[in-house]
Amino acid sequence: MAGFPLGILTEFGVGTDVQIVYIVVMISAVHSSLILIFENRYYIMFAKETKWKHYRKLFSAGNYIFAFTYFIPALFNVPDQEVAVRHLYEIIPDLSPTISDSQIFVVATEFTLVVVPISIFVVVNAIECYLCEHFEATEKFPPFYVHPSELYSEKG
Question: What's the whole-number average pLDDT of the chain?
Fold first, then answer.
């Protein structure tokens, strides 16, 4: 798994490895923020007077810690770039000059080092998203809440 940067950070001298970490962490943080939006909506509507109010800070902190750390195993296993790029040229000898003239960065020679942490992160966040929506959908609505379907129903 390899690539080369084309963005403005390259012009400012930011290393490719730093750019990879930055984009992975930012995507993960945005995903965790979306989960926490669902959680906050659930908390405001249903869980203010439950035990959940004590656990939600831990849940939020855990989400962000996970978002910032799940990719660390892949980063510790980045191969030696000279050897990895030579191996890349052996596998794909006819690279276009645009690519071969660029500074190629090899993240991993084995997909499992990158795919497994990302897959775990996606599955955990998908489960959290499902649970937030499930709890929200199965809770009894507060007495002051009017369900949208009741707004337009004709009462005889």
Answer: 82
